[in-house]
Write a sequence for this structure.
């Protein structure tokens, strides 16, 4: 039998870890639970064998809704034996980390049975299935050195084709329509890309909800490409949830593209945005004052905006409003206050915003570029805000369910 005891609980903002102890019962052990051998307790060819009375200590952490095993040890006769380190004679005799402690632990526990009479029929789960699950058939052994890239862009995307053209890459496209798949196949054929290096991921899953999965039982993704910004100028819905899941499916050293998105904005005065976003004036319609009623249902964000042709006056320089980090969840936040100094006098009616999409530390693209297919969006203020040149305006920027909202008010000199 197993006796489960909690030894220590650590609480952090987005990471909780707990140390658990499993006491191996005194009953007979049918089969051996083995771990990579410790240099103090070597067991050639089999690893480390748990014995009755041993206490198995596991440090468990939970990040992005997935359990991770940080360390494994055995307490035997008040002596701690580390199982997440193994002795490697090829590296100056120094202990090195076991590459996959989850798999080693699951494999050991799957082989451990207790009781006098072992069952005739039993099922043993694969260690990787117990650790992370979501497995598909394994790739051929000769493709184990390939880099696995998943493109989950919306609509028709050439990114998977571009990735496959670099060689030693097995790229998966999320293109769903058969005609679009045929176009990518012909492009790949005309560019001498092997057919097995470009596949269509939705053909391997039951529905699009299973799109973010492991490429195989043994492999994780080298890179996952996310479509972050809609053409209308808004952040795609559930982007952060997809990024959270994608991080769990990356191999060590893997990346999400883009890695970071910076939101920029500017104070403007635009009567056109006011006219298009709400009913202006108090003139009755057929004898009824309907403007206050209709304005209750106005949307505070104006989309499909072409900032380069918008009739407006710029009342400030562009400023960074928000940052979304798709690789580091601890760097994210839900609201932020930004101070902006007005460079001209006027009425602030809206704050247009756009995105600088950083693929990595060096390469980025802007949705404000005139060569871009993206449009911009603008947060329209419910009441215009009068400012003078030199005034400081405090913007309260919030991100809720992938939707950006912005409010503004003038900061008095006494409160600065």
């Amino acid at each position: 039998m197993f006796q489960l005891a909690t030894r220590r609980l650590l609480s952090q903002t987005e990471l909780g870890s707990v140390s658990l102890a499993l006491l191996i019962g005194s009953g007979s052990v049918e089969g051996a639970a083995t771990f990579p051998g410790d240099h103090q307790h070597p067991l050639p060819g089999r690893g480390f064998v748990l014995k009755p009375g041993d206490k198995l200590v596991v440090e468990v952490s939970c990040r992005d809704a997935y359990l991770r095993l940080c360390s494994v040890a055995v307490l035997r006769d008040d002596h701690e034996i580390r199982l997440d380190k193994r002795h490697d004679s090829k590296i100056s005799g120094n202990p090195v980390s076991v590459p996959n402690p989850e798999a080693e632990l699951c494999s050991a526990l799957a082989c451990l049975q207790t009781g006098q009479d072992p069952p005739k029929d039993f099922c043993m789960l694969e260690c990787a299935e117990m650790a992370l699950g979501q497995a598909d058939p394994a790739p051929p052994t000769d493709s184990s050195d390939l880099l696995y890239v998943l493109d989950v862009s919306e609509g028709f995307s050439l990114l998977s084709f571009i990735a496959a053209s670099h060689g030693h890459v097995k790229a998966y496209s999320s293109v769903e329509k058969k005609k679009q798949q045929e176009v990518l196949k012909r492009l790949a054929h005309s560019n001498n890309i092997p057919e097995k290096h470009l596949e269509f991921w939705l053909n391997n899953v039951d529905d699009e909800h299973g799109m973010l999965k492991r490429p195989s039982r043994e492999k994780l993704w080298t890179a996952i490409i996310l479509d972050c910004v809609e053409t209308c100028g808004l952040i795609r819905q559930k982007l952060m949830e997809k990024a959270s899941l994608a991080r769990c499916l990356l191999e060590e050293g893997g990346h999400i593209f883009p890695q970071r998105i910076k939101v920029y904005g500017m104070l403007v005065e635009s009567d056109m945005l006011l006219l298009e976003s709400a009913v202006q004036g108090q003139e009755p319609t057929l004898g009824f004052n309907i403007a206050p009623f209709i304005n209750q249902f106005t949307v505070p964000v104006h989309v499909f905006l072409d900032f380069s042709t918008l009739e407006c006056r710029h009342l400030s320089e562009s400023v960074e409003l928000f940052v979304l980090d798709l690789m580091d969840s601890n760097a994210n936040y839900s609201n932020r206050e930004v101070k902006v100094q007005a460079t001209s006098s006027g009425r602030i009616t809206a704050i247009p915003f756009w995105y600088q999409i950083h693929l990595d530390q060096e390469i980025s693209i802007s949705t404000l570029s005139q060569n871009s297919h993206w449009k911009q969006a603008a947060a329209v203020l419910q009441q215009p805000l009068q400012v003078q040149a030199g005034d400081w305006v405090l913007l309260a920027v919030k991100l809720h369910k992938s939707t950006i909202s912005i409010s503004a008010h003038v900061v008095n000199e006494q409160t600065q």
In short: The radius of gyration is 29 Å. The CA atoms of residues 161 and 188 lie 7 Å apart. Residues 2-131 form one domain. The mean pLDDT is 76.
